[in-house]
Amino acid sequence: MPSRNTQKLYPMQDFGIVTSLKTTLRVQRFADRLTPLIPFPHKHNFYHLLVVTAGAGWHEIDFARYPLERGRIYLMKPAQVHSWQLEKGAQGYVIEFEEELFKIHPSFAGKIQNLFQTLPDSFQITDKKEFSELADLCESLLKEYETKATDYELVTSLELFNFLIRLSRVKNLKLKEPPAVESFGERFEALIENHYTKHHDVEFYAGKLHISAKALTMKMTRLSGKSARTLIQERLILEARRLLAYSEMPITEIAAHLGFEDANYFSRFFRLKTKRSPGAFRKKAKDLA
To answer: In what helix (H) or strand (E) does residue 13 lie, and over which residues does it extend?
Structure first.
């Protein structure tokens, strides 16, 4: 089992990815990326979009395993851990881009970030006409990227935005509720991401947002259906699962890394949330690997 690949956020350069200097965007055929330069499982510091036009196997993102088949699309955000196992003949498109792309086109930034929040990590488009149209957009994007004609950086970024917006219009696609403004919820989630390994209490985040802990809990429950404490704890559990499954860190070190002074308390917390002890979870993950 790999011990380090999920503890580092790998940039595009580590995958042999040469991007446009202006757009930090890369487009490639899936057939050219079947064997990763960095062994699975691993995580990136960039967005990763995979559109499958042919093939079989599976693709796992943060412990959720999805079939790999024609019409299936995967959307990965930075820091998500993934791996895949493929049969011969997999085809499609891989589109990757960094946060910098949003800064180049700020008018699109909120819209695209919201799309990645509202679209599921993986879904299949069963309508043949709809999927063919989306695949054609990917082919156009790839050709523009490879040709590198005048202003291709601008054209490729606009074609990417067009693809994502068209994707959000697909019939019968179940979207999560979109964030209500760049929103209070997004600010809270960003704070969790920056501080969850050191601060587990709602009061800390409420102070950063200049409201009371009670008001924060009520607001997040209204926006997301989950309390502020639940969202903090879910992030802790996700990282604990990643470290237990994909690293060889001792449980005591994982507990300390996640801000638990007492490893026994961490173990009780983990068991309460997952119905398994950390040791049992790690053993099962190794057995499945």
So the answer is: none
